[in-house]
Every structure is written in C-alpha cells, then in structure tokens.
Specification:
325 residues; 2 strands; two-stranded antiparallel sheet; globular; 66% helix; mainly alpha
Length: 325
C-alpha cells in the first residue's frame, strides 16, 4: 500500500546511512569523541579532587553521608557540563545539514529524486542526532563510576540522560530549520548558536532574575517563574535537587501543579518541571521539523516540469513541418 511504502521510505532512509558513514569515516568524528570524553572526564576528576580536598580538610567525607555528598556534587557538575557540551555540539553537526547540500549544488538533485521532503528532513535530523547520542552513550562509563560514591539514584541518572537527549534533539531541530532557511552554512550556524544560547542560558538568567525579583516582594515560599519551567538548565538542577541562586525552594514545592477545568475545580496531579521541559522540547522538535518540510516542499519542482513536453508526430508529416504552438 502507499502508506506502507511512505513509512518505509521515511524510516529506512538512505540519507541516514550516507551521512552517518561519511561522518564516521573522517578524522573529525573520533576527534570530537575524544575531545568530548576528555573534557567531561577531566572536569569530573577536577571536581572530585576539589570535593575530596575540601572534605578532607573539614573531615566531612569521613562522616556518614560524606561520600554521598561528594558523589552528588561530582554527578551534578558532570551532568551540567554534558548538557553544555551537547548544546555546543548539536548546532555544529546540524546547522549545515541542508545548507551544505545547497552549497555543493546537490540539494536540487535530492529534491528531484525519489526522496520526499519529509524523508530528507527526517534523514538529516536522525543523522545529526545519532552522532550526539553516540557522544552521550560513550560517556556513560564515566557517569557509572560515580555510583561508587552514592548520592545519586538510578531515577535521577535516567531522567538526567533523558533530558540531555531531548535537549540535543531540540537544538538539532532548530539548527536544521535554520539550515533550510539560510543558503550559507556560516549564517545558519551563527543563527543556530544564537537561538540555542538564547533558549538555554538566556531564558534561565531571565527566569532567575524574575524569580528573585518576585521573591523579594512577597513572604513565604517563593514560586519559580513560569519561564523556568521550559528551561533545560533549571530542569536539570531540579532533578539533581540544586536550588535556584538566591532562592531556597523546599523539596515539597519542587513540583508544579497544573490546574484545569471550570473555575479551577479540577486539579491535575503534580507535574515535575523536567516533564514540562521534555514536553515543550518535543513540541519544538515537531514544529521545527514541520516548518523545514514545508519550506523544502516549496522548493521542490513540480512533477510536470521534470520532463520536456513532447509534441505528437502525425504520420506522413515531418517533425519540422509541425505547427509551432
């Protein structure tokens, strides 16, 4: 059937294999993996030495729960660095996915071939995110060593990795959209980095300022600004139970309750901030992918313009004697 053939073309995409092989055959992929693991491992060792030194001077790491605090501090530092590295690597691998094809003058070849715009966007997005997920998976042994100290349970570990993966997917989808919008890879890369920085660090800093400003004007437990519910940095901090700078939020107030129904009579169950962030990033991925497909579909030539028009030849009449229409 046609829908089965369309699904097969989307999921069994040759662009994923082509881009994946071409990326892994170059020296840049092993170099990026080595750089990623080196930065992450070196930073983890540095934080561990600082934590052990501070605990040894105060005698805190010999007390009950001291090693758990060290493990929690090291995991928090490495998770935040991993999130930052993912936000740095995602635009680099996805911002030139389509613009590079346009610069090599191969985009028109793809558009007039049997590859649909949906398959093209899907293939480029999967090929870009697959490399980022490879970096995340390669770093799992580094995170596994922190379980020797304790302080982090498996649920926190799994949610942190899930949030990192969805953030990478969202950053890659936004970068892919800019790659379709701009004809030059340099412009798309700059725009992708600016959008990623504004969506992560920019919204977090603005949310912290608004939260602290609201906390100074009221008594009792401060409420987080709604802008921070969609921020991956704040969601990661809430997963790892790190309070906002200048604002102490108790564990009982770390979840957000969504109210629905008429006059607020129906109360939905508590929703953790990371759930809101993951849902918002998923919606962002769908919107960016749909916009990229529509833009590419507008650039696709119509079927009737692919072949030249052939005039019928009447018997007994030479082609040059045919009337010109």
């Amino acid at each position: 059937m046609d829908w089965r053939r369309s699904l097969r073309r989307v999921f069994l995409n040759p662009l994923v294999t082509k881009d994946g092989l071409s990326r892994m055959r170059s020296w840049r992929a092993p170099g990026a993996i080595a750089l990623y693991l080196g930065l992450l491992g070196g930073f983890g060792v540095l934080v561990l030495r600082v934590a052990l030194g501070a605990g040894g001077q105060s005698g805190g790491y010999t007390q009950s729960g001291g090693y758990a605090q060290i493990g929690s501090a090291v995991f928090t530092a490495m998770a935040m660095l991993q999130l930052a590295l993912v936000c740095l690597f995602s635009p680099a691998v996805a911002a030139g996915a389509v613009s590079a094809e346009r610069e090599r003058q191969t985009l028109d070849v793809l558009l007039v071939s049997g590859v649909s715009p949906l398959s093209l966007v899907w293939g480029k997005l999967v090929a870009s995110v697959a490399f980022i997920l490879l970096l995340v998976v390669a770093a799992q042994p580094l995170f596994a060593t922190i379980f020797l100290f304790g302080g982090i349970d498996f649920q926190q570990f799994a949610i942190a990795q899930l949030l990192t993966a969805t953030t990478a997917l969202a950053a890659a989808a936004v970068s892919l959209l800019f790659s379709v919008l701009f004809r030059r890879t340099l412009l798309s890369t700059v725009a992708a980095y600016a959008a990623t920085f504004a969506g992560t660090v920019g919204t977090w800093v603005l949310g912290v300022i608004l939260t602290i400003g609201a906390a100074s004007q009221r008594t009792g437990f401060p409420e987080l600004n709604p802008l921070m519910l969609f921020n991956p940095i704040q969601a990661m901090l809430m997963i790892l139970q790190v309070p906002v700078i200048g604002v102490t939020v108790p564990a009982a107030r770390r979840s957000t309750t969504l109210y629905t129904g008429l006059a607020g009579l129906v109360v939905a169950p508590p929703v953790e901030p990371w759930m809101v962030t993951v849902a918002a990033e998923s919606v962002l991925v769908i919107l960016c992918a749909a916009a990229a497909v529509l833009l590419l579909r507008g650039q696709r030539p119509m079927p009737w313009s692919l072949e030249p028009r052939v005039e019928p030849v009447h018997p007994g009449v030479e082609p040059q004697d045919q009337p010109v229409r």
